[in-house]
Amino acid sequence: MAADTRITGNPNVSYVMGLTLDDADQMWAFQNDSCTGNAVYHLGWVSLATSPVQNVGSVQPYNTTNVQYLSFNNQHVSKAGLETFLKNRYGNSISALNTAWGSNYTQWDSTGTTVTGETVATGDGRTTAYTHTLANSKPSRYSIGITIGGTLVAGDLAHDSGNGGADPNNTADGRIWGPYVTGKITYGTGALSLTFSTTPNQAAYGALNICQISISGNVVNVQTCAQHGLWTGEKVNISGTTNYNGTALGPITVIDSITFTYAKTASLATETTGTYALNAVPGASDTIKVNYIYTRHRSLRQPRKFWMY
Predict the structure, then answer these.
(1) Please, is 67 exposed, middle or buried when counting C-beta atoms within 10 Å of its C-beta (0-12, 13-18, 19+)?
(2) Domain extent at residue 242
(3) In angstroms, rounded to a whole number, what is the distance separating the alpha carbons of residues 177 and 193?
């Protein structure tokens, strides 16, 4: 194998066949996974074949019992890194890459058009179900992001069996998932349906535990033990604490995926137990919006481009 400064000098360098990234379940570069017997994939191919953005996902998509999550940074970092590497290698020339690869890409990046903040509806505190048709039909898979007040609350699982497990054979419709949102996007028409609930729609979110709650400067800071899925402007119920219990507390401000704050005039000790709950579905001050990417060409076919879109 070619010399590599990271392993040159190792007495076993001549015998290196591949590198494992983790445990025996991730035997990348070897012929087969030692646990399943299935062939494993080249990481470069995985990066090329994967969507450049994804707003929601699962720890292991093929296992229906694994936790799903919101991706507040929806960029596929490995794909972006591969593009940067190839731009450096080929002098930022797509023609040079085509010559070396025998490919016919026409440009770097994406030919897709990004839509940010298209209004779906405004809540009223009672309505739970909404429908909307995207202004630009045929959105790209994995690009759907549902937001309220600029906070991501749901996205699309394009190849999904409908029960939380990915299904590569499902190429027609995508399930919309969020901790408090269910729905569907029809990729061929842009038809979108959303249903909100104050009850988390996944067992993993059933125990809405607080890891730490404290107050400073008349602002309560709540750190949750898992992604909370809430949005700025919403109100929450808190129970199981000594001094912070209450109903319809807020409106809250979302700091990140596991932290939110709300105003309270008091001087209280920090606590590390308790639970929280969403108080109501989107209200009159909550505008539901959708972000997505659309393009006439969504695969690595003509006209070719380095990104998926």
Answers:
(1) middle
(2) 205-278
(3) 11
For residues 77 and 16, give the distance between their C-alpha atoms in angstroms, rounded to a whole number: 27
pTM of the model: 0.80
Helix (H) or strand (E) holding 96: helix 94-101
Q: Which two tokens stand for residue 130?
A: 């909404």
Specify the CATH number for the domain of residue 230: 2.40.30
User: pLDDT tens across 160-208, in order?
Assistant: 554 444 454 555 468 898 889 999 998 888 999 999 999 887 655 556 8
Kindly state whether residues 273 and 285 are assigned to the same domain: no
d(CA 118, CA 186): 17
| Measured distance CA(158)–CA(140) in Å, rounded | 9
Domain annotation covers residue 46: no
pLDDT at residue number 148? 96
